[in-house]
C-alpha cells in the first residue's frame, strides 16, 4: 500500500472518529480544535477527510497479495493466520529391508500377545 493511501486511510479514520464523537456526544472535535465549523482550518480538515474517503474507495476492491503482508519468520509469527498450523507434508523415505523386518517382527509379536 502506497504512502498516499496510508495518509488517506489515517485521515478517513480521523473523520470516522470525529463523526463518532458527533453522533455519541454531540461534540465536533475538529471544530473545537480549529475554531468552529466555519473557520478556514476546519473546512480544510473536513475537505481533506472527504477527499481521503473518496481515495479509500478503491481499497475496498483491491485484491491483497501475499507481498503486501509481512510475516516474521519464526514459529509464533502466523500461529493464528496459517491454516495448516505449521504442519509440513512431504514424501516419506522408503523403509530399508532391516526396518521392514523389524516392523514385521513387532507386529507379529503384538498379534501373538492377543
Describe, in plain words, how this protein is organized in 3D.
This protein is mostly helical and 114 residues long. The chain has a domain at 3-63. It has helices spanning 3-25, 29-34, 40-55, 57-61, 97-113. The protein is rod-shaped. The N and C termini lie far apart (65 Å). The model has no long low-confidence stretch (mean pLDDT 80).
Strand residue content: under 5%
Instruction: Report the helical percentage.
Output: 55-70%
Shape, principal axes of CA atoms: rod-shaped
Largest beta-sheet characterization: none
The unreliable regions are none
Write a concise synopsis of the structure shown.
The protein is an all-alpha fold and about 110 residues long.
Keywords:
about 110 residues, 5 helices, about 60% helix, about 0% strand
What does the secondary structure layout of this molecule look like, with pairings?
Elements: H1 3-25, H2 29-34, H3 40-55, H4 57-61, H5 97-113
Helix pairs in contact: 1-3
